[in-house]
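User: Here's a chain of 225 residues. Predict its fold as tokens.
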Amino acid sequence: MPRDKSNMNGRPLSETVQGRHALLERFIAAAHTTLLTILTSLFEPHEEDSRNLLMGSHKLEKRSSSTLSLLRYPRDPKSTAQGHNKHTDVGTLTFLLTKQPGLQVLLPGRDGWFSVKPRSGCAVINVGDSLRFLSGRKFLSAVHRVVPTTENAAKDRYSIAYFLRPDDDVVLEDCSGRNFTAKGWHDFKFDVFRQPHDEQERSVYSTGGMTAGDRLIVEVERTRM
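Assistant: Prediction complete.
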């Protein structure tokens, strides 16, 4: 997973970040190892082939779009806009840290959104599209969003997310049955994320084809396993 001192757009990192580069590198290494450990634990002993496929798709020496994001949602007491509209993550697993409320998820068998309360000393781990695709739809991508809350109305919201993603050349079958490389899926979906919110709402790709309104379509996943 080669890395350099630039962001995903190829621009140099800020002086503030570069001054803490060693610290961030240690955090990335710890988060990466933690997510790989979780990944190996998701499969039973008789599913060794599936485990080997997943681990073989995340090789440290190969290039991937795995990345650390430091996120700030600016305060705006008068706005009802979402901090981040509903979506699924592109990659395999996400390691998320935050002390503030606002994260919501859709749950199987339930209509509407469920608020995820921050817990001291705990991280949130989200399943992303790549794990869903590589596991043959055994695992569901976490459909989630970030919304303003009364508690956060007067202050910015911060979170730290490390996104574990497969090697760039790993081939995935997406929600429409098309084949992408992991890099190709990343780039395609981020093009969707750049669209206005109303256009994203009409696209199946923001949530990986997993929602009908504010409800998960779990039945579709089961028919493809």
